[in-house]
Each structure stands twice: as C-alpha cells, then as structure tokens.
Amino acid sequence: MMEKTAKIFVAGHRGMVGGAVCRALAAAGYSNVVTRTHSELDLLDPAAVRTFYEAERPDVAVIAAARVGGIGANSAANSRFLYENEMIAMNTVWGAAEAGVKRLLFLGSTCIYPRMAPQPIPEDALLTGPLEKTNEGYALAKISGLKLCEFLRRERGLLYHSLMPTNLYGQGDNYDIEHGHVLPTLIRKFETAKDRVILWGTGSAIREFLHVDDLAAACLFALSMDDPPDLMNVGSGEEVTIRELAEAVKTATGSTAEIVWDSTKPDGTPRKLCDTSLIRSLGWAPKISLKEGLALAVASYRAELAAGTIRL
Prior knowledge:
Elements lengths: L7 E4 L4 H12 L5 E2 L11 H11 L3 E4 L7 H6 L1 H21 L4 E5 L28 H21 L2 E7 L1 E3 L12 H11 L3 E5 L5 E6 H12 L7 E4 L4 E3 H12 L4 E5 L14 H5 L8 H18 L5
Helix pairs in contact: 1-7, 2-4, 4-5, 6-8, 8-10
C-alpha cells in the first residue's frame, strides 16, 4: 500500500497520461508529488536523471514520459522513437534503482505485442512473434523498459512493475494532425472541417480505446497493491472499427463533413484488443464508456483551444 505521505515523482506530467496521473493523485489526497519540465530535467541525459533522483529521493516513481505519435510519425521516424524512448526508459528506471527508489510504475503500450497476437491479447503474448513494423521502434523501447523493471524486481527485490494501456484519449491529448494518434486527430479534423474529412486506410482496422482518466485510476489501483503482477494490460474491453470510430466522432462533434478514405495509406495492425482479465480479476474496471469519453474529449478539446493551452 502506498502511504499518503509518499513522495511521488511523475515523469511526463505535462503529457496526457502524466497529467491524468497527477490529477488522480491529487484527488486521492497525495500532496507530495514531484514533477520536472523538460527544460528542468532532460530525461535523455543519464547524468541529469541520476542527479535528480539523488537530490529528490522519491519513494515512488511513475514513468509516464515518452515520445509518442500515430502511424505516420512512428513509421517515418522509427529510429528516433526507438532511441528517445529507450533512453527515457533506461535512464528513469535504472537511475531510480541506483538511487534507491523502492517502488516504480512503468507505463508502456499494447503495441509491445506481436502484430498477429491472439485476440484478445494476453500478457504472455509478449515476445512470441514479429512486431507491427509501423511502430516497431517505440514498441522495442517499451519492451526494454518493462523487462528492466522485471529484472530489477527479481534481482534486487525492488517493487518495479508495469502497466500496458491500450489506445488512450482525453484531456491533454496531442491534436497534431500530421503526427498524432487516431482519435485526437479525428476530433480536430471534424472540428475544423468544412466539406470533407480525409482519413488514412480503409477504416477496417479494429481498435480499443480507453479514456486517460480510467488509466490514471488503474495506476493508483496498481500502486495500492502490495504484490502486483510484473505486467498488467489496461483496456476498456470495447472494440470499434476505425470507420465506426470516425462516425462516432463526427456525431460527437456535430460535424456534417463527408468522410473520405485514402486506401493508399496503411491501416496498421488489423485488430488490437487487449485481454484485461488479469487486472479485472484483481478488482479494477473502467468506468467511462466510449460514448461518454468522446463527449468529454470533445469538451476538453474545445476548452483547451479556447484557453490557448491545446497541444498541436
């Protein structure tokens, strides 16, 4: 059980996931939360990370920092996604262990699993087949991070464990049309469209989406456990084709734009649903449906745009 007085470092607090974790910690009564902006702490610099850990000595670290992007960004820059995410994972996890941080939660993504993994994807599908090429660099880095946590737990007795969330969306998302993830990209496209919206692929790919506030709740749930599994999937259990998702976002935004599919662009992994039976059996379950979550996400987009805080 994580004490309310615990000093908690949240890496990546300005991102969607880190921001949601900070909000959840505050709502749960955790007031000793430590954060650093990129200008204050470069997570790609191992010496700087070591110095930070040694100075702050947090009781717990939550690693939510990452370079993220959609199919286009990943496939165009697999090398950068591999290098930067590998460095972030190695520096934050190894640095924590060297500084004596007793507990760490590492956040990854279900893209760590093979492209043709069994559906729903169980945790033991890891490393059983080839990865999806369009985001292979990111996936390899996240695999390294979760494996480092596993090894450190086994060898040093440190309570380092990982959560692998499915596709996320919600407050604080990145709405970069060229490099963003599918759902925030859809929201921005429909919010700004006049006559039509051009979308990648055929719309046939099947995906699962989880509101980021549900993930934050799962993080606190995992941190409340005295002996959590090394790795747990986190997802909504709701499947939807990208075509169905596009129609749902169109409805949520109130757009009248025509949807046009560019089949010369890739769909990515054909289907990706994670098996969340493990974490559900331990007592966690999502609370926000896709319909409710889309309404919240559209409202967040509009509020952030009006406030000038939107990430583009």
